[in-house]
Design a protein that fits this description.
With 550 residues, the chain is mainly alpha-helical. It has two domains: 280 residues, MFS general substrate transporter like domains (Growth Hormone, Chain: A, Up-down Bundle); 249 residues, Growth Hormone, Chain: A. The radius of gyration is 24 Å and the shape is globular. 51% of the residues are buried.
Length: 550
């Protein structure tokens, strides 16, 4: 992204390679506002995870004229290796769950390593893993081997997701101690918005590479993989880290007496994840995510089932024409576009707001407002107030995204900034658990009620009340979060040892106060334009799709 700015190396020689952390320590000509676009380049790329659903149906129509007698009732294991039968939607849908699960595992395993290796090395490996995983997945589609798609997109792609997600977090928090929420909100906003850009591009590529009626899924995956390798690598090489001890000119850390929930000490990863504070915040994130995923996973069918012909202003007893049915489906698709938009923008807005009202109060807002909205949505459905129903879903999804973006700043407040990236990596296992349990729970509840004879327009009522109950539990967990005990924080000797593992030269830290006073410059404008223009195009596409609702 940005050009290298007067980077200082270790005394007595050159730095050990372009990917070494010591090569990324900022010099006095660097401006900290060049770091967010580098982070966005990575998060907009891995954010395509939310747009992967555009591949599911096309992936079930890759084999022309299959032998239906042979292909009926294949087991999942058989689908992994068949070359003559089309895959089913459930078989390919588990790819999403796979890379979300691997995301959390990878972030947890390599979070500590990342603190020492630096964001450039982690970001570059993430680029090779996520982009390369898509290329391997495309090859798997081309030879019709589902196991290879799982290995590429699911496993290798999941590793890229995990490393790419946490790579910018620690650096951003250290660059913006005065605006922790806003800084992480910028980056994680990209993850929510990646699908707004990537999904329409993927659809265009599938159309372009289609041949003889077979969707061009393989070509789309491989080209997207190459694009993401380039974009994420550019972001990785744009990363800079502040010297230890750096702080913005004129800024002083808040006094602990007036801000007891913001520590000026640091907790080591090995102790942090054993504290009750960590597991309470883990539960807070897991419950917020589970409730949000519940709405994401059923938003489109819920709108159609609850309102149906009412979306067109037509009486419910009227027999719909084909065109009217298509208009209802288009309206539901418009909701999906709005969800992507609010999921993305909510990450920045709520995280930025947390800088003013505090992280704990921000999560209180999520839970209290969420409980009201979840409990009110069944009534809105019964009253036929589709507009208010849609607004409720949009607010809920903004808080779903906001929960992700506020979590790193919450961790930095409680555990300090020294190892916040590694601690955040462990926390993301909450996402992995919620990403698997949430959709299964919601789908199971829906099917159970349908089997019991509950009408389609009423089947979501109980589910929404259960999701509200999860938020009540989350609110209790948030209430129980207290500052860590002093004996859990690192001593000065332990902190110095941890910092020594980052291979930072003493003379660099000594000049910490002179760093990041450089001008923004033309390079900064280009860096922000390269991530901002695609994001705004994605916003426009989402708004255009949402127009079908109105």
């Amino acid at each position: 992204m940005a050009t290298a700015p007067d980077v200082k190396t270790a005394p007595g020689g050159s730095a050990s390679g372009l990917l070494a952390r010591e090569r990324t320590i900022a010099g006095p000509k660097f401006n900290r506002w060049l770091v967010p676009p580098a982070a966005l380049a990575i998060h907009l790329s891995i954010g395509m995870a939310y747009g992967f659903s555009v591949f599911w149906l096309p992936m079930t129509h890759l084999v022309t004229n299959p032998d239906m007698a042979t292909c009926q009732n294949l087991s999942f294991f058989q689908e992994l290796f068949t070359t003559t039968c089309n895959w089913t939607v459930p078989a390919v849908n588990h790819i999403f769950e796979t890379f979300i699960a691997i995301l959390g595992v990878a972030a947890a395993i390599w979070g500590h390593w990342l603190e020492h290796a630096g964001p450039r090395r982690a970001g570059f490996i993430a680029a090779l893993s996520w982009g390369g995983g898509l290329v391997i997945g495309g090859i798997g589609v081309s030879i019709h081997q589902l196991w290879l798609v799982y290995l590429g997109c699911g496993v290798l792609g999941g590793i890229g997701q995990g490393l790419g997600y946490i790579a910018p977090v620690s650096s951003l928090i250290k660059w913006f101690p005065d605006r922790r929420g806003m800084a992480t909100g910028f980056a994680i906003m990209g993850y929510g918005g990646g699908a707004m850009i990537g999904a329409p591009i993927a659809v265009k590529f599938m159309q372009y590479f289609s041949h003889n009626g077979v969707p061009g899924v393989a070509g789309a995956l491989m080209v997207l993989g190459v694009i993401y390798i380039i974009a994420m690598s550019a972001g990785a090489f744009g990363f800079r880290v502040p010297p230890n001890g750096w702080k913005p000119e004129g800024w002083a850390p808040p006094a602990e007496a007036s801000h007891p929930m913001i520590t000026q000490h640091h907790v080591h990863l090995n102790k942090a994840w054993k504290t009750p504070q960590f597991w309470l915040i883990w539960a807070v994130l897991a419950l917020n995510v589970t409730a949000g995923i519940g709405v994401i996973s059923m938003a489109s069918p819920m709108l159609q089932d609850v309102f149906g012909s009412k979306l067109l202003g037509v009486d419910i007893t009227t027999t719909l024409t084909t065109a009217q049915k298509a208009a209802i489906v288009a309206s539901a698709a418009g909701l999906v576009g709005l969800i992507s938009l609010f999921n993305s923008l909510g990450r920045l807005i709520w995280a930025w707001a947390s800088d003013f009202i505090g992280r704990k109060n921000t999560y209180y807002t999520f839970f209290i407002l969420g409980i009201i909205l979840y409990c009110g949505m069944p009534t809105l459905g019964h009253m036929g107030l589709a507009g208010m129903f849609v607004i409720s879903i949009c607010i809920i999804l903004s808080m779903y995204g906001g929960g992700f973006a506020t979590a790193p700043a919450y961790l930095a407040d409680i555990f300090g900034t020294q190892m916040v990236g590694a601690i955040h990596g462990r926390l993301l296992t909450a996402w992995s658990v919620a990403g698997i349990i949430g959709p299964v729970l919601i789908a199971g509840l829906r099917q159970t009620q349908l089997n019991a004879g509950v009408a389609k327009n009423l089947v979501y009522d109980r589910t929404l009340y259960i999701l509200a109950g999860l938020l009540v539990v989350g609110m209790i967990c948030n209430f129980l979060v207290k500052p860590v005990k002093e004996e859990d924080t690192m001593s000065e000797a332990e902190l110095e040892h941890e910092r020594s593992l980052q291979h930072e030269a003493p003379h660099v830290a000594a000049g910490a106060q002179d760093a990041a006073r450089g001008s923004f410059g033309f390079g900064g404008v280009i860096a922000w334009a390269l991530v901002g223009i695609p994001f705004l195009i994605g916003v426009w596409i989402a708004i255009s799709k949402a127009a079908a609702l109105f």
